[in-house]
Design a protein that fits this description.
Beta-Lactamase, alpha+beta, rod-shaped, Arc Repressor Mutant, subunit A, 235 residues
């Protein structure tokens, strides 16, 4: 397990790497890359089955071209194989196509990581004349890409849910502390609960502090005397 991930959490970079690394052997492609962005405006994550295609895809993200970029950013439908030595590829991808040809790849196909309402990335398969990509292979590749997209979406939803739960727990804990402090003030100063809270809030504002911090000190027995000790002769 990679460092920096919580137990049970999905390691998204590792998941993308597994998809890129395993796809060539499973589908008979020469190489594979994956581009992915968790949200529409977030930076693209790139991985590849070997260092050369990783650099190619990384550079393509900077050029804003290539089959992976087109499939992801423009939500382009999968169009099957594209010959990299053909005129359409050279015109559409003036940087990507020549570089891929130099690396020995003659055709490419991009399969969208398609979610419910958007495309979050693409699985890109590169091949040569000795390892052509058949329609059956592309169908299987699309199934793999969509399955991966579902896993990634559920992982993000679980992460958002965990964050929301943590925020709610912190908010509840804060509210409990404040209610306890209100009760202490109300009891010791013989005040209604609403007046106790007003006094607590006024004290926090006067000292430029958070209400929660002042309340915690009161609950822990370290509160300011004016909040916890009745003035002699006061009602």
């Amino acid at each position: 397990m990679s460092g920096g991930t919580t137990q049970g959490a999905l390691d998204i970079p590792t998941t993308l790497s597994v998809l890129a690394d395993r796809t060539p052997a499973l589908l008979g492609a020469r190489a594979a890359t994956v581009v992915f962005a968790a949200e529409q405006d977030t930076a693209v994550q790139v991985t590849g089955s070997n260092p050369e295609v990783y650099r190619l895809e990384h550079d393509a993200a900077g050029w804003r071209e290539g089959p992976g970029h087109d499939c992801h950013r423009h939500d382009a439908p999968p169009g099957g194989r594209t010959a990299l030595d053909g005129r359409p590829a050279r015109q559409r991808w003036p940087h990507y196509a020549p570089r891929a040809l130099e690396l020995g790849y003659t055709s490419v196909a991009a399969l969208p990581l398609r979610e419910q309402t958007r495309t979050s990335g693409a699985l890109v398969l590169l091949s040569d004349r000795q390892s052509p990509l058949s329609p059956a292979v592309l169908t299987l590749a699309q199934t793999m890409a969509e399955f991966t997209a579902v896993i990634l979406r559920r992982a993000r939803e679980a992460d958002r849910s965990q964050t929301l739960t943590s925020n709610l727990e912190r908010a509840l804990a804060t509210r409990i502390i404040i209610e306890q402090a209100k009760g202490i003030i109300a009891t010791r100063l013989s005040l209604p609960m609403d007046d106790a809270f007003i006094l607590l809030r006024q004290h926090a504002r006067a000292h430029q502090r958070r209400v929660h911090d002042v309340a915690r000190e009161i609950v822990e027995g370290r509160g300011a005397p004016e909040l916890t000790q009745a003035t002699p002769g006061a009602r």
